[in-house]
Amino acid sequence: MQSIATSLGVNDKNKRLMYVMYFAFFCSGMMSQIFGAILPFLQEEYHLSYTFRGLLLSAHQTGNLLAVFIAGYLPYAIGRKRSTLYLSSGKAVGLSLMILTGNPILLVLAFLLTGIGRGTLSNITNVVTAEISTKKTSALNVLHSSFAVGAFISPIIVMLITKGSPSLWWVGVALIVEMEIFSLGAIDTSNLSDTPAVKSQDQGRGYYKDARWWVNTGILFFYLCNESSIMGWLITYFKETGRLSPTIAQISSSLLWLMILAGRLGCAAISGKVNKSTLLLVLGLGQTTCFLVMISSSSKALTLAAIFLLGLFMSATYPTTLGTMPNRYNSSTVATGNCIAIASIGGILMPIIVGAVAEQTGIGGGIATISIALFCMVVLMIAKRIMGRNQEE
């Protein structure tokens, strides 16, 4: 039986590096999704308003923006390995700060640092995976499946730890800090290049003149609007509206990521057999429909079904969009970094918009604003499909 690395077209020299990238992204998934799980506990312990909670989520996305921009250029100065280690250590530092203090300024700094760490890993793992695999789209879907596994696990960990005593939420965070430190050690001992790259060898120059790059970036922009807001506010929404019990609300987040995992693995298997632009459009329409059902249905069964299907349709949007970039952009830390940086602005703006609207109209009104971003994403997916058809003709 072939190993995963072999089936993805990774040579023997880079097999361990691929698994290190997957493990690091798994840990990043654990870290990213724990925010939605612990946000209600942070609110109870530190008495945070809707707007400030939205600010914290946006601070995380701001760090993500800063990191993917910096990580696109820093490897040219100090090499990929050192730039990755320095910047991604922000995840462990930021999570530790959340445990130690409720000071508003330090909390914002903590979320900012975790975003810097997450953005760094997002950039380097996507670039390296695309480089070392001959089956790029499948490898990227498996990479993002590892992220989904981590995101699926962390809310369950928090739920189990806090079931008897909500004040123990910090234990779950501490466990993830240990995982992040271990992943840093794995990266440090990998064969990730530690030699400064030669900028003239970057093949992604002129990306900003390419309409395909901008359409893909726009799709990711609105997708991250949706993902960051849904993942950050979902548990709070269900708990505070009383539509689901606190336990089921916590589980709903993990169920969402379980379906994201299933969808990413499924799309990795079929990505070579279907038109990827058509696949993206189906995913976008499915997300929009399921989200509207989720927030409008009074039936708990239908709400849970919508959550399941929402995760399924969200699953492959990010990796498939990246995977349909021209090859020269995928292998460029500058082109990839700036794409993710611009897209991350959506993840910065939307959570605080949801929080600000919720402050005025309630959490239901805040969550409903996400539908606007979903609509814009679908419009760009239609444009992408039309562009792809014209190129085929």
Given this structure, which CATH class is correct? Mainly Alpha
What oligomeric arrangement do these chains adopt? single chain
Approximately what portion of the residues adopt beta-strand conformation?
under 5%
CATH architecture type: Up-down Bundle
| Termini Cα gap | 40 Å
Average residue pLDDT: 84
How many distinct helices? Answer: 18
* Helix proportion range: over 70%
Instruction: Give the SSE order as H and E letters.
Output: HHHHHHHHHHHHHHHHHH
Question: Total strand count, please?
Answer: 0
Q: What is the approximate shape?
A: globular
What is the CATH topology assignment? Growth Hormone, Chain: A
- Low-confidence segments, given as residue ranges, are none
Question: How does the helix and strand content classify structurally?
Answer: mainly alpha
Major sheet summary line: none
Domain unit count: 1
CATH superfamily: MFS general substrate transporter like domains
Q: Give the radius of gyration.
A: 20 Å
Report what the structure shows.
The protein is mainly alpha-helical and 393 residues long. The protein has helices spanning 4-7, 15-46, 50-70, 75-78, 80-88, 90-100, 104-132, 136-162, 169-188, 211-241, 246-270, 276-296, 300-314, 317-323, 327-330, 333-361, 363-368, 370-392. Helix 6 (90-100) runs antiparallel to helix 9 (169-188). The termini are far apart.
Question: What are its keywords?
Answer:
393 residues; mainly alpha; Growth Hormone, Chain: A
Summarize the structure.
The chain is an all-alpha fold. It is 81% helix and 0% strand.
